[in-house]
Amino acid sequence: MARPSALTLSTKAADLLSAALRHARDAEHLLDPAAGYTSPDQAYHLAGYGPECARKATVSLRWLDQAHGTASRPPPLT
């Protein structure tokens, strides 16, 4: 079996990177007054998942991304 190079992305890693970007875009949309509805609390919550998904995408052993959960997320706004 060929060993993957450093530039090879698995389907799971590509999906996680896509999710990270989607979370950031969705959070940005929730802060845009032109969208007709804003929710800073939901935007903050959603934006917190972006870095988490990006970190999980960089893990080479897929089972490790399951262990890396939301423990490193910032606390909610009060």
Task: Pick out its properties.
78 residues, 58% helix, mainly alpha
Average pLDDT taken over every residue: 79
Structural class: mainly alpha
User: Which outline best applies?
Assistant: elongated
Overall strand count = 0
Helix tally equals 4
Helical fraction:
55-70%
Which regions are unreliable across 5 or more consecutive residues at pLDDT < 50?
none
Rg computed from alpha carbons, rounded to a whole number of angstroms: 15 Å
Cα end-to-end separation: 51 Å
Explain briefly what this protein structure is.
The chain is mainly α and 78 residues long. The chain has 4 helices and no strands.
Could you characterize the architecture of this molecule?
The protein has 78 residues and is mostly helical. It is 58% helix and 0% strand. The protein has helices at residues 11-31, 40-47, 49-58, 62-67. The relative contact order is 0.17. The model has no long low-confidence stretch (mean pLDDT 79).
Layout of secondary structure:
Elements: H1 11-31, H2 40-47, H3 49-58, H4 62-67
Helix pairs in contact: 1-2, 1-3
